[in-house]
Design brief:
2 copies of one chain form a homodimer.
Chain A (H helix, E strand, L loop, with lengths): L2 E5 L8 H14 L4 E5 L5 H4 L11 H6 L7 E2 L5 E4 L5 H10 L6 H7 L7 E5 L6 H9 L2 E7 L2 H17 L7 E8 L6 H14 L12 H5 L7 H4 L4 H17 L1
Helix pairs in contact in A: 1-11, 5-6
The structure holds adenosine-5'-triphosphate (2 copies) and magnesium ion (2 copies).
One adenosine-5'-triphosphate (ATP) sits at the interface of chains A and B.
Amino acid sequence: MGKIISVINQKGGVGKTTTAVNLAASLSALEKKVLLIDMDPQGNATSMSSIKEENFNTIYDMMADPKIQAVYQTKMPFLKVIPCNADLTSAEIELLDAENREFVLKETLDRLKDKFDFIIIDSPPALNILSVNNMVASDGIIIPIQCEYFALEGLSRIIQTMKSIKNINPDIEIYGILLTMYDKRVKLTYEVENDVREHFGDLVFQTVIPRNVKLSESPSFGMPIILYDVSSIGAKKYLELAEEFLSKTE
Amino acid sequence: MGKIISVINQKGGVGKTTTAVNLAASLSALEKKVLLIDMDPQGNATSMSSIKEENFNTIYDMMADPKIQAVYQTKMPFLKVIPCNADLTSAEIELLDAENREFVLKETLDRLKDKFDFIIIDSPPALNILSVNNMVASDGIIIPIQCEYFALEGLSRIIQTMKSIKNINPDIEIYGILLTMYDKRVKLTYEVENDVREHFGDLVFQTVIPRNVKLSESPSFGMPIILYDVSSIGAKKYLELAEEFLSKTE
Ligand SMILES: Nc1ncnc2c1ncn2[C@@H]1O[C@H](COP(=O)(O)OP(=O)(O)OP(=O)(O)O)[C@@H](O)[C@H]1O
Ligand SMILES: Nc1ncnc2c1ncn2[C@@H]1O[C@H](COP(=O)(O)OP(=O)(O)OP(=O)(O)O)[C@@H](O)[C@H]1O
Ligand SMILES: [Mg+2]
Ligand SMILES: [Mg+2]
């Protein structure tokens, strides 16, 4: 049975999309069958997956009608994607009135779960009904955080929200906290890292993702870092993360 | 009559809070009477305003009951703040059912407008009912964008949303697009800058905010950059922005 993981943090710009896409791509490079799902109406993960089709169905369509097929092949053999677009914003309002509003995504993914080893879900920068759906559908969450002050402030809120989700999804756990955009030249980086490792111990991945310009360039070419520049430090670190992730979850 | 300005962009982590707080502080240093309003449930602008009171009323309280007073003095003589906390998340759901749901903030601010020269509003990383309230209440918007690919992708969406807000707030205009976290060493920075200046011309501020570690340190001390380190390049640039902003709006 495939494991479902949400990459989530309500703080904006901490590297959720970069982590969801590059972890999914790295796991698929290690020949795991991976499905990436874009549940952020900004559609950034979709634009990094370079789907060939001009018009495509989305996760929003699949949640509305289970018969619709929206799983697409990417340039990487073991990586498929379910895209999204701005229509997903309407789901935020529609889901609020739905009967089983927290479970809609979970029910959509139930029939896909055994076709993949891992399903990785990108989340919007919010703790709204979309991110709640992500967490209810997930076996675990990965929380990317920048080594900055606001990221630290927000960490306790996402962990509190996850604890309250445990009432409806008892199995959910934190697979890891990931330090991103790590800049060795900045003192604040070490202060935040020490704080986080002191409070959360083994929950924090040993692998740290450094600030690396190739990671910010790869989205303009619509591809994960491993296809854009496999020799870059960004590609090496996301591959290392995938290996550490496998050692923690298998 | 005071001008109301929303700092807004649904893309996360582009420098909305950093810009709202430091523009407000810089304008107040130029002896303009300024009110900063935190309309993001993360409460980052609130934590940068170091309010002395332990328990304080919030913008959420004021929107629910106009008799409630929630304007607080900051450490800067000409700068006041209306804080927020995570309760504002409930406003997202409650506002959806309200009669005049887009106008609630505008009605709350009508009686404050003539007490200040400028009212600056920080927004959440979303195009939801809170950011719609911000735009309906505003005379103009400032759009911070990082010089990165995803920021460019999101720019057309915020401009489209503003155009649709013009149906209910005909006066709203773009006061400026601000390039933030500008890093001269990165080629992508120039590519994005050229793209934005080519498309939007004079709408783009001449002043550019460079990546400056003092700007990321000041939030941990709960103060704007002008109080944390007035000699830093970050403080100089936000002061320059305030002067350019005044020359454009007065
Ligand atoms: N390690 C890194 N080094 C350099 N740039 C990075 C790194 N990680 C992410 N970026 C860039 O930083 C920006 C923010 O990252 P990203 O969009 O992945 O964050 P996010 O949390 O998904 O944002 P949002 O909250 O808007 O969804 C992007 O432009 C991305 O290309
Ligand atoms: N010019 C800059 N140089 C260095 N760091 C910066 C700069 N501007 C902002 N930062 C830092 O980058 C992070 C993101 O900035 P900020 O929180 O202001 O963005 P935001 O758009 O308000 O994020 P959100 O979408 O979560 O509301 C913060 O940790 C902030 O301290
Ligand atoms: Mg994202
Ligand atoms: Mg902010």
